Amino acid sequence: MLASLPLVYLLILAAAATSLFCFSMTKWIPGRKGRAVFPLVSAACCLGMVLVGRIQYQHWPVQHMLVLYSFAWAGLTIGLFPARKLMHKYATEINAGVKREKYDVPARFQVSAISSVIIGSLLGIVLS
Fold first, then answer.
1. I want to staple 79 with a disulfide (CB 3.0 to 4.6 A). Which of 21, 65, 96, 113 is the partner?
2. What is the dihedral of CA 57, 61, 63, 69, to 10 degrees?
3. How many whole angstroms separate alpha carbon 31 and alpha carbon 101?
4. pTM for this structure?
5. Mind listing the pLDDT tens digit of every residue in the chain (128 residues)?
6. Residue 97 DSSP code
């Protein structure tokens, strides 16, 4: 369904998902490195998904992979929302020079992030 849209619209959809993720992460994790790292990581993940789709036996087209990337990335952003205060706290401590042996992340935050990425990916597959 969505994969039948022109490639330009799908690129805009992927750019919107990337900008949502990058804006949210730079807001939740303070620091200058994030402004450069998060867009690069997002672009690398998008390119990686497109390449993996081309390598697959089924040869998923670019349109399908862009829809899948957009929904998975939006799902990741939504899934990380409950942990934003904890991420901000840990990032502030790291920027201040405090080192911990272990950074504890409660299971509910992990389940939230994983389940929202899975739901977003399934939704992207169904809608593509």
1. 113
2. 30
3. 21
4. 0.88
5. 888 889 999 999 999 999 999 999 999 998 888 788 999 999 999 999 999 988 888 878 899 999 999 999 999 999 999 999 999 999 999 888 888 889 899 999 999 999 999 999 999 989 88
6. T
